[in-house]
Design goal:
Blueprint (H helix, E strand, L loop, with lengths): L11 H16 L1 H20 L15 H14 L8 H17 L17 H18 L7 H10 L5 H9 L3 H26 L1 H24 L9
Length: 231
């Protein structure tokens, strides 16, 4: 726009446009500087957390206490004009709220080798499970993962042979125990399904179970107490 000649014919529109652009740029110049400064501080926060993790060898002496101390010093040094710098004010508020609420829980990865600093890989895994479930069922809903997702996470395989090899590593006793726990976890869902499909029959079954339970308790109460020497 600065190259537009002011004395050439047919440039009236461009001159008016230039003035408007310059006016807008001047109006939001402070906001641009505010955003640039907020972005600089955001990068400093990421550097303090050593995020994203470097592919090189991590610092061997880095601990959660060191990161916490550096973060506290960084927080104390960040004192923006909260009234005239809205972007920095938003960063200031979000930073202090997040650190106060979740700060200690964000530092375990510096003390436990192999613990990632975020859950991006885990979220990616969950996404693959949901996509796989949709391909298998042909439905958008992935409610089945609430019942079987914990087992699908354990048995991720690219082929039938790989899946079979993983299953063979589970003992029969452990399989039966987990199968029993799965049956217990599925019981409420199955009850709701029966109530929806056959409410009358389901209620009759519950009444029979209740009567049988009361009869068993009554027979136990009617037995005389054991006397000393009774076997």
């Amino acid at each position: 726009m600065g190259e537009v000649a002011c004395d050439e014919p047919g440039t009236d529109y461009l001159r008016r446009l230039k003035r408007r652009v310059e006016r807008v740029v001047e109006t939001y110049r402070v906001n641009v500087e505010d955003l640039r400064e907020a972005h600089t501080w955001l990068r400093r926060i990421a550097d303090c957390l050593r995020y994203p993790p470097s592919d090189s060898v991590p610092e061997p002496t880095l601990t959660s206490e060191q990161v916490k101390r550096e973060m506290e010093e960084l927080r104390q040094s960040f004192q923006p004009d909260l009234k005239r710098r809205p972007a920095q004010a938003a960063l200031y508020g979000a930073w202090h709220r997040t650190w106060k609420a979740y700060g200690p829980d964000l530092l375990h990865c510096y003390d436990i080798p192999g613990l990632p600093p975020d859950n991006l890989m885990l979220e990616s895994l969950f996404g693959r499970l949901r996509r796989h479930q949709r391909r298998v069922s042909g439905r958008k809903s992935t409610r089945e993962l609430r019942d079987f997702g914990q087992y699908q996470v354990l048995f991720l395989a690219e082929s039938e042979e790989e899946l079979l090899e993983q299953i063979r590593q589970v003992s029969l006793e452990e399989y039966r125990e987990n199968r029993r726990r799965l049956e217990e976890a599925e019981a409420p869902r199955r009850l709701l399904y029966r109530l929806h499909r056959d409410p009358l029959g389901t209620m009759r079954g519950l009444v029979k179970q209740h009567a049988a339970r009361r009869a068993a308790l009554s027979s136990t109460d009617d037995k005389p107490p054991l006397q000393p020497g009774d076997t």
